[in-house]
Structure formats: structure tokens, C-alpha cells
Design brief:
It is built from 15 helices and five strands. The chain is α+β, with helices and mostly antiparallel strands. Strands 2-3-1-4-5 form a five-stranded mixed sheet, with helices on both faces. β2 (362-365) and β3 form a beta hairpin. α2 packs antiparallel against α4.
Amino acid sequence: MLDENKNKEGMSLRTIHFWLIVGSVIICALMFFSTYHLFSSFEHLTETAEQQIELRKAARELMDASDYLTEKVQRFAVGGERQYLTEYFEEAFEENHREEAIAKMSAGTGAEAALEKLQAAMDGSMALMEREYYAMKLVIEAKGYTQYPEILESVTLTGEDQALDAEGKMRRAVEMVLDDEYYEQKDGIRENMRASLEALERMAYDTDASALASLNDEMLLVRIVIVVQTLGIIFMVWLTSCLGIHPVLNAVDRIKADSPIPVVGANEFRYLARAYNKMYEVYKTSVEHLNFKASHDELTGAYNRSGYDLLLSTIDLSTTYMMLFDLDNFKSINDHYGHETGDKVLVKLVRVLKKHFRSDDYVCRIGGDEFVVFMVHSTEIQKNLIARKISNINGDLMNTEDGLPPASVSVGIVHGSAAKDGENLFEKTDEAMYEAKRGGKKTFVFHGV
């Protein structure tokens, strides 16, 4: 029973509005959440890529620094120029590229395997430096330099090498930095460097794969949110259309057609529809239950003056044509054929008018031979249609097959939108009708349309 009452009452616009706002906020929050996480994943991927670049750069810097030291010690051993000795120790103890490479690698996350190989390369480089120090001490002894880096003071030549002359010491220095044993140590350093770079490559691949998987998950979430948002918008449009827009448009059409409004849609609109339908029923009942004799002409069956006044006060003049019909030469018909025939002509005129107008339109007799037709629900200018109707009406009145004398009408026509009120509308229509009379009768005149 409760469900039936709910269905009868419909959903409230306030409730719909509240849940639409809640739904919009939720969807916006989901969109913000998903885009934020997508951005975070992309930022993480970027940071990871930059970190990998820095780590690979650090690894190469160590190798470059080792090669730089090798170049300087070999030049010093071959030529003995002091500038190479100076440049060697500037790199080893001032620039510290190798130590910086180790520090960068230590700061990176997940680079333990690469760092181990890099440290092995560093250890090999330090071991090679002991050999290079010995070679440099030989050159210093051979050249007789008295000023040199303090660290070389601790290097002690073997008795055999100490006994060599200057030229012999130079040859021995060259051998120590250019022989196979030296390059075997260099190859060991390079091998550890390659292993470190390979470990970095593997780490980069694994990290990128993990980051891309996370990014794909975030992209999937964004797609889901977009689909939910799209479905939510479609649902909101559908709900608004079903409960608001469509019922209103349907109601407008029903009102134009002078019929009750369907009780559908939102709760508030259903309330309005029921209120309108009650008013409509009261209006229809009042019109239909008017005392026939009080509201209709006894001779013709058309609305009389009282019915005319009621209709004029209740119908929507802004969508109504008023047409004033006057029988041409009606007095002559009465004088020549008699009042009984004249009455029959009036009855015929009403019958012809009802034939050529719709059942929703109203035919009224407001005087002896004057009739008004209210052509309702006419929002558009319909000159051609009305002209055809009047032409057909005059054609039927001129037909004498029924034994009645020929007759015609002069018509004044004004649309209600051209008048201030009902009284002003009648004045304009009456003026148009008399203009038609002056124009030769059996014709019509439009005013204000």
C-alpha cells in the first residue's frame, strides 16, 4: 500500500535536486581523486626515470674519472711534465668525481646490486692508484722533483728500482702504467662498471614496468570514472526529462487542446496537474451544465447573448479569433418570403457555421441576424484557412436545393491578440464587419492580423 501511495505521489523535486547535487559532488570527487592519483603516478614515473638517468650518469662519471686519472699518470710517466701530476691530484682529491658517483649511487633507492659493482670498480680504481703512485714516485725520483703531493712521500721504492738510474726509473714508470698487468686491472674496473650499468638497466626496467603498471591501473580508474560520469549525466538528463521537461511540454499541448493534464512526473508537478484538472472539471461542468434556455438561442441552438458573455470572459482571447457574421439583406428575405422562412435561414446559417468550424469552436447568436464565432486555440495567423471557410459558408448559403432562398454573410474578423480586452475585441470585429458591408457585402475583412 505504501509503494502504491509513493507511486501515486511521485518523487519530490526537492529530493531529486538534493540527490542530483550529492551525485554531482561524488562524481566530481571521484574525478578529482582519480586524476590526482594519475598525476601522482605520472610524477613518480618521471622521478624514477630522472633517478635512473642520474644513477647511470654517476656510474659513467666514475669510469670517466678513472680513465682521466689513467691518461694523466701515463702522460706524466712518459714526459714527466709536472702539470699532469697536478691535474691528476686535482681530480683525485679536489674534483672527487669518483666519490661523488658513489654518493649518488648510495642515495638511490633499489640500486644495491649496481652500487656493489660500482664499489668494486671503485676499489679496483683505488688499487690501481697504488700502482700509479709508485710509477709517479719513480718519475719524481728520475726528474729530481723536490715538491710533490704529500701522499707520495709515503711511497717507498724497492731497492732494485731505487738503484736504477734516471732513465731506468722513467722506463720502469712507463712499464708500470702501460704493461699488461696495468690494463688487466683496468679491464677489471671496466668489467665491474659494465656489471653496475647492467644492474642499473635491470633495475630501471623493473621500476619502469612497475610504474607503468601502476599508471595503467590509474588510467583504468580514470576511464571507469569517466564512464560513470557519462552514465550519471545521461541519467540526470533522462530523470529531468521524465519528471520535469516532458510532463511540462505534454501539459502545454493538453492545455492548448483544451483537455485535462496527465498526472505524471515529479510530486510538485503532479500536485499542479491535479489542481488544474479540478479547475478544468469545474469549468467544463459549469459550461456544460449551463441552463440550456439561459445560455442557448431557442431557435437556432447557438449560444445566446448570455452564453456569449460567459464565453468571452472565460476563453483565452490571445489564442482566439472572433468572427462577426451578419446576414446580407435579411430584412428583404423577411419582407419577401415571410418571417418563418427568415427563421429557417437563420437556422440554416447556424448549421452551416457548425459544419465548417470545429466542435471546439463556439457559435453564438448575439442579435437578430448577427452571429459570433469564437475560433479557439489559434496561435498562428490563419488568413487563408478562414477565407476558405467563409467562401464555403457563402457557397452553402447560396445553395437553394433545400427550398430556402439564397443568402450570404458579411464577416468581420479580428484575432484576440490585437485587442486590449473582450469589449475592445468586439468593437474592432464590429468595425471590420461594417467595413465588409460597405465593401459590397458577401465578403470579409481582417483587422489587426
